[in-house]
Amino acid sequence: MSRISITQLEEMKQKGEKIAMLTSYDASFTRQIEEAGIETILIGDSLGMVIQGHDSTIPVTVDDIVYHVSNVARVSRRALLIADMPFLSDSSPQKALATAKRLMKEGGAQMVKLEGAGERLAVIETLASHSVPVCGHLGLLPQSVFLLGGYRVQGREEQEAQQMLNDAIAIQDAGAQMLVLECVPRRLAEEISKALVIPVIGIGAGAACDGQVLVVYDMLGITPGKLPKFVKNFLEGSGSVAAALKSYNREVKEGTFPESEHAFL
Ligand code: KIV
């Protein structure tokens, strides 16, 4: 079984086939996620919250991500593995290159994800010019939670929406090959997905994105407390983790997840 390539994901977008992504941080979930046919796995810095018990992603270190990516990569055979660049590990092009080197060479990731545009565009350009595949991340940026004052929908104001569209195009032009949009009104996410050639993966960004991502612990109902409205519990009524992961993959592919109740206006 050969590994999913970025080219295959771009072809899926061109054909209107939806891409499924889930987070994973260990070998056991990775085996099940791949068995369910999900194309991409994100070793997200959400591990700071769901694995380590912090209340933000800020404390996560490069060592943490390298450890979890290597657990995932050791058993992964098919999914494209995307590793998050932790807070401030991408604050300059040189630092980002050093981080990417560890995530890819020691960890085994095939792509790195970093949050934001602006000064990050030079970082994306440098990574891309050194053959590091990059996934951008716009909308709600969890690493900027203290600046944003909480986990809120982004891009509701017209000026903010226009800026996000411009940033998305700039991220693509800088050489990124994928973009995650988090907590963005569905019309704006649709506009951005249509404007870009690269696949746009949404979380709380509506059904018109080219694919969907969720935190695996959220969609299995393991995360305690009140969850964001974009999360659906796929374990409920499905009987097993394997069946829940397959339902997620099927619903993403059929376009029945997310429904309007999981999206923001
Ligand atoms: O860290 C993560 O899991 C993420 C997703 C929420 C997109 O960035």
From TrEMBL:
Q: Which EC numbers does the record give?
A: 2.1.2.11
The record's InterPro entries line, in alphabetical order, gives: Pantoate_hydroxy_MeTrfase (IPR003700), Pyrv/PenolPyrv_kinase-like_dom (IPR015813), Pyrv_kinase-like_dom_sf (IPR040442)
Top-level taxon of the source organism? Bacteria
User: Is the keyword Isomerase assigned to this protein?
Assistant: no
Which enzyme class? transferase
Task: Tell me the residue numbers annotated for binding 3-methyl-2-oxobutanoate.
Answer: D45, S46, D84, K113
Reaction(s) catalysed (UniProt annotation)? (6R)-5,10-methylene-5,6,7,8-tetrahydrofolate + 3-methyl-2-oxobutanoate + H2O = 2-dehydropantoate + (6S)-5,6,7,8-tetrahydrofolate
Q: Where in the cell is it found?
A: Cytoplasm
Pfam families (alphabetical): Pantoate_transf
* UniProt: Mg(2+) binding residues: D45, D84, E115
The cofactors it requires, by name, are:
Mg(2+)
GO CC annotations on file: cytoplasm
Q: Keyword set for this entry?
A: Cytoplasm, Magnesium, Metal-binding, Methyltransferase, Pantothenate biosynthesis, Transferase
MF (Gene Ontology): 3-methyl-2-oxobutanoate hydroxymethyltransferase activity; magnesium ion binding; methyltransferase activity
Q: In which pathway does it act?
A: Cofactor biosynthesis; (R)-pantothenate biosynthesis; (R)-pantoate from 3-methyl-2-oxobutanoate: step 1/2
What is a biological process (GO) this protein takes part in? methylation
Provide the cofactor note recorded for this chain's UniProt entry: Binds 1 Mg(2+) ion per subunit.
Give the annotated active site. Answer: E182
Main subcellular localization, coarse class?
cytoplasm
UniProt subunit comment: Homodecamer; pentamer of dimers.
What is this protein's function? Answer: Catalyzes the reversible reaction in which hydroxymethyl group from 5,10-methylenetetrahydrofolate is transferred onto alpha-ketoisovalerate to form ketopantoate.
What family, per the record? Belongs to the PanB family.
Q: What is this protein called?
A: 3-methyl-2-oxobutanoate hydroxymethyltransferase
